[in-house]
Amino acid sequence: MQKYFMDISIKYRGRVFRTREINEIRKIISEYPDRSRYFLSREICRRWDWRQPNGTLKDMICRGLLLHLASLGIVELPPIRCLLPYNKFSHSRRPDIIEVDRTPIEGKLSELKPIELYQVRGTLLGKQYNSLIEQYHYLGYTRPVGEHLEYLAMSHGRIIACIGWCSAPRHIGSRDRYIGWNKDQRQKNLHKVIINARFLILPWVQVPYLASHLLGLIARRISQDWQKAYNHEIVWLETFVDPERGFKGTCYKAANWVYLGKTTGRGKADNTYKPNRSLKDVYGYSLRKDFREVLCDEVL
């Protein structure tokens, strides 16, 4: 016979799940004893209408919640059938190397114009982007988590830069203080914030002011592109700059980004409250004058 909890609350990913939700999860699991964890997470999302801003189910987050509840002994999940649906990219191979013309490009910015930005996600150019990031960016290529768009910048038929964006981290102290939102406001509107996860001017391209110019081009179109891809606007851009690697954030300053402070040097899953990585400078850029009103809105 199904046992129900009478008084319980569990916090996961900034949301509190109380007795009613926990008992409903247990009920759904008991209704489908022979179905996979993949099915259960999607069924829970369907019943709760738990969706991303673009309408897709939050089944990956739900699956993480189920694993968390199982680790606490609150639910009992069916055996794992296949690792692929939960983390199908955990063993993905590195991007193929695609050679490009590496003839040096020097001179004035005006000589490169017109510079065109190509959004490459879902196109054949996506493999080219992945290859260049893997070869020439110091962090290499990793598959973005959550919403993301990538761009190639081209001049006269040649690739000159790669720029990648993805969903922003849930909590950055300096950013949160600058915006002035509270926890509920951040949880509701965080999807309107994205981070510049990769920015690569190809090493054989040596053109003054190119990086800040590209940031300006991106700022004028990124929200519209995000609206088409994910059905919501972008209000705030941010990035990390690692001074320990000698980076000074010069191009962001030149493009009128605002220095907000430093990171804490802790990962998102850290529970030691001690720095375990380099402290990075945080920069932000608003795409609307009323960004604070939009991001601090609580109306559902």
Polypeptide structure, described:
Helices cover 32% and strands 20% of the residues. With 300 residues, the protein is of the alpha+beta class. It folds into two domains: 1-91; 105-295, Aminopeptidase (3-Layer(aba) Sandwich). The strands form three sheets. A seven-stranded mixed β-sheet has the order 4-5-6-7-9-11-10, with helices on both faces. It has a two-stranded antiparallel sheet with strand order 1-2. Strand 1 and strand 2 form a beta hairpin. Helix 2 packs across helix 3. It is globular, with a radius of gyration of 22 Å. The model is unreliable at 84-91 and 269-273 (pLDDT under 50).
* Low-confidence spans: 84-91, 269-273
> CATH topology of the largest domain, which one?
Aminopeptidase
Portion in strands: 15-25%
CATH architecture tag of the largest domain: 3-Layer(aba) Sandwich
Average pLDDT confidence is 88
Structural class: alpha+beta
Q: Major beta sheet, specifics?
A: 7 strands, mixed
Terminal CA distance reads: 38 Å
Query: Can you identify the CATH superfamily of the largest domain?
Result: Gcn5-related N-acetyltransferase (GNAT)
Q: Which descriptor suits the 3D outline?
A: globular
Number of β-strand runs: 11
In short:
With 300 residues, the chain is of the alpha+beta class. It is 32% helix and 20% strand.
Question: Topology of this structure?
Answer:
Layout: E1 9-12, E2 15-18, H1 19-31, H2 37-48, H3 59-71, E3 105-106, H4 109-112, E4 115-119, H5 125-136, E5 148-155, E6 158-167, H6 173-179, H7 183-189, E7 193-201, E8 205-206, H8 210-219, H9 222-230, E9 236-241, H10 250-254, E10 258-262, E11 281-286, H11 291-295
Parallel strand pairs: 3-8, 7-9
Antiparallel strand pairs: 1-2, 4-5, 5-6, 6-7, 9-11, 10-11
Helix pairs in contact: 2-3
